[in-house]
Amino acid sequence: NMHGATAVWMAAAGPGRLYVDRCTFKGGVGGRLFGLVRMAGRVSNSLFVNNQASGGDMIYGYGYDVPFINCTFTSNSGGYADWVPSPNARLQNCIIAGDAKLNSGAASALVLSNVILWNTPLGTGYNNAASTNVIALDPRFVNPAAWDYQLRENSPAVDAGDNAYTNGTLDVAGNPRVQDGNDDDLAIVDL
């Protein structure tokens, strides 16, 4: 958990890799919350909540494609994604709810796949043609006022993901990632 500080800034002289899994970034304040320069990797099963990016970018990437898989972004302010000249900013099986904005500094660089996008305006760089299954509904968290971002049983995010994008077997709370959440006999990942 990150409280009251800029969370991650990684830079490499040559190609490097960073893998983040099952982390919570909460209450971070700084120029950028999460930055990768000349680094490849992946961020998965993580929660970004109540962070403030005063420098304009919540997430900054330069040079490589870093997917965010099964992550939840909520109640963050400041800029959001600036991935110039990264190949793509990819958000897969993610929830983005109540954030200041979602954009990319590069034209058509932001690609969403199986994403709940609720109460968050789209800015520049959104690639509508390449994005799939973007759901504009309230994710129905259990109790965000008490920092409980689990999904209610009637959430549109239950069984709405794509198992091909699943990374790891556990979610941020340590529960099994793929299960039949709506009792339709299909074990599909929740967003």
Fill in the keyword field for this structure.
191 residues; mainly beta; 13-stranded parallel β-sheet; two-stranded antiparallel ribbon; 17 strands; 0% helix; disordered N terminus
Q: Look at the helices and sheets and give the structural class.
A: mainly beta
Radius of gyration: 15 Å
Give the termini distance in whole angstroms: 21 Å
The averaged pLDDT comes out at: 77
By DSSP, the count of extended strands is 17
The major β-sheet equals:
13 strands, parallel
Mind explaining what this structure looks like?
The chain has 191 residues and is an all-beta fold. It is built from no helices and 17 strands. The strands form 3 sheets. Strands 1, 2, 3, 4, 5, 6, 7, 8, 9, 10, 11, 12 and 13 form a 13-stranded parallel sheet that branches. Strands 14-15 form a two-stranded antiparallel ribbon. It has a two-stranded antiparallel ribbon with strand order 16-17.
Task: Spell out the blueprint of helices and strands.
Elements: E1 8-21, E2 24-26, E3 29-44, E4 47-49, E5 52-62, E6 68-69, E7 72-74, E8 77-78, E9 81-82, E10 89-92, E11 95-97, E12 110-118, E13 132-135, E14 141-143, E15 148-151, E16 178-179, E17 188-189
Parallel strand pairs: 1-3, 2-4, 3-5, 3-6, 4-7, 5-8, 5-9, 6-10, 7-11, 10-12, 11-12, 12-13
Antiparallel strand pairs: 14-15, 16-17
